[in-house]
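Usage example:
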Amino acid sequence: MLIKTAGIVLKNSKFNENDSLLVIFTRKLGKVSAVAKGARNPKSVLLSGVQPFCYSDFVLYKGKSLYTVSQCDVKQSFYKLREDLDRLTYAAYLLELVSAETREGQTNNRLFNLLGKTLLIMSNPEAELNTVLRAFEIKFLHYSGYTPQLNDCVNCGSTQQTGWKFSPKEGGLLCSNCHSIDYKAIKMSDYTLKLAKYLLVKDISEIQKLKISNFLNLELSKVLKEYIFVHINKQSFKSLDIIEKI
Ligand SMILES: [Zn+2]
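Running the assembly step on the lines above writes:
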């Protein structure tokens, strides 16, 4: 059976002497593993479309345990990402996030569109990298079913205007009366909260040029990172380890 689907390559590893084993996030099948036969051969017609980040139209053939790439037509290679190590590494982080939260047979159109759009935005050197990354993280959580509660206290429902903390474990804001139920709750300034809500609802292409201060970026990044560690089944990201070493 042949299946035609758009897909973004999340990972490419060596399989046999000449073959590549791909992990592809596809629109129609969710995340799948697929062998690209002969793709390591420099003359292979598949070579350009099987690199990580590549967005292609794939024709896949379903075998007993794996898919085989029968054709691949590159739509967007995001090659400009490779010109900047920071951007490339953060883009790799997005792929790791998506890979951790997607399954075979489980489609997620909104996440698929978000990933494609974000990789394209990150290829533009003028896009504000921090803003785009924070927006991706919060939307990724939303589309994966882990929307953080940012409108009222997760414990008592209070809608107080200020003095919030954020509890990754409880899944959202804690009002000043409820801070004590999670001693690991993180202080969240009113500005950071406002930014988080804004990034959650705005289309990512509309915020790509929005500059945010280091303070806001660090505070929001800390909250989202902890939230991701608690809710996504992944404790470390190779790409982020690399960034810390750069
Ligand atoms: Zn409360």
